[in-house]
Amino acid sequence: MTRFVFLLAFLFCVLNESDAQVRSHFSGSITVSTQIDSVADYSNIEVLVATQEGEVLDTLGYAVTDVDGRFATDIEARDRGIFPLLIMRNGNVLNASQYVVADGDSATIRAQLPLGDRSPIIRSPENSAWGAFKNTEAQHNQNLLELLQAGQNDAASVSRAVELASSLLWSLQTTFPNTFGGELAATKSVVMLDGWNDSLLVARAEALPATAPGIVEVIRAGRHALSRTDGLDASLAWVRAYEPQLETSEQKAALRSELVQAHLDSLNQELAVQEAQALIDDYPESSWVPWAQSAIYEAENLMPGMEAPALEIATSDSTTFSLADVAGRFAVIEFWSPRNRRYDTQLPQIEQILLRHIDDPLTWVFVAFELNDEVLETWYEGRDTYGIQLRASASDVEALSTAFNIATLPTRVLIDPEGRIIGKYAGDILLPLDSRLADVLPSTQQVPETNEG
């Protein structure tokens, strides 16, 4: 098991009582299977609820079991929320899960070690709501997987599955009234409708109070929906109407970022820069300031129609690849990492895109952001690879991250035959890029050649 290196440190990082606004109680018993320990002494099992802010670990609650495995502790936090729950013994983490801290909640646990990867059952109104939320999400993900395996992942089937899960999540706020988990479930039920049922999304979003957890994500999804149904101006007005209702400057700055992103999405370069600068000026202490600065760079350097930044990377055969090597062809430059576990699930989709465009003037350039030889070699082992495979050095990663304004991996940039940017697509979703390729390229149905990786 993992050594808990902060075992002593957290004892000196206890949350200042004067800062605590949320208080709850946690008690129960933790025993050990007789197959592991036949002595039946369950003392010195540590129960820790904590949160880490930067390098400082705040202890919200801590207890040590007696010989019968019993413990009790009060939990104190600045705000209600979901926090790590660690069960430890002799400095080793035996189980890591999650715990809801909400004012007035009283939770109990009865657990027998070892739990493996299973989460212990925590009983309280708040933790039961959170458990129902997680179980509903897990069932939805399983349903989507079964649709995929059955070849029924068409838009209509997926839409029905999404709307079913959304309705179940929405109902949890009634089943578990006034709980953090129920409110989070309502938020998720709205956000997951983005792109599937715009009218239902907006109706549910308007039914949520501005104090709902994750309200900015709800506003973001609503902006997307209204932009599709009523146009840009209506979506911007809807976003702006929320600002006076939000409680914190951080939330308001996040809301302003939606205005910036809306103008970027609509290719309104000047307005995007104006909104980003206004965010910086109005909320200079916000964590969104670096994002706004990045957005200004994006608007001034990486909008469609602008010349793509320079790209020069040493290849495995000691030559140098540059965009000049694909001049006269469309190119997708994909910055990716083998450490992204979700990336593997995208490879079949990329293969299908290449299959449709194998005879088109399109080159797909994969630039791996990975400095560890073993990690990259292990990823490539036994794989069929497509396109041009490159690896960025440490200096390349820094330079390319700056030049292409890369904040997340994968990020893909579509470039036209003259070296101008057509679009930039950050994140796991391939559909917008696929659709744009369909706009600019004719489609074919031949199988691409592979290079044995």
Helices and strands, with pairings:
Elements: E1 22-32, E2 46-53, E3 56-64, E4 70-77, E5 81-89, E6 92-101, E7 106-113, E8 122-123, H1 125-149, H2 155-175, H3 180-191, H4 198-207, H5 215-229, H6 232-240, H7 249-265, H8 269-282, H9 289-301, E9 312-314, E10 320-322, E11 330-336, H10 343-356, E12 362-368, H11 373-380, E13 384-385, E14 388-391, H12 394-403, E15 411-415, E16 421-426, H13 431-440, E17 451-452
Parallel strand pairs: 1-7, 11-12, 12-14
Antiparallel strand pairs: 1-4, 2-3, 2-5, 5-6, 7-8, 9-10, 11-15, 13-17, 15-16
Please provide a brief summary of the model.
This protein has 453 residues and is an alpha+beta fold. The protein has helices spanning 125-149, 155-175, 180-191, 198-207, 215-229, 232-240, 249-265, 269-282, 289-301, 343-356, 373-380, 394-403, 431-440; strands spanning 22-32, 46-53, 56-64, 70-77, 81-89, 92-101, 106-113, 122-123, 312-314, 320-322, 330-336, 362-368, 384-385, 388-391, 411-415, 421-426, 451-452. The radius of gyration is 25 Å and the shape is globular.
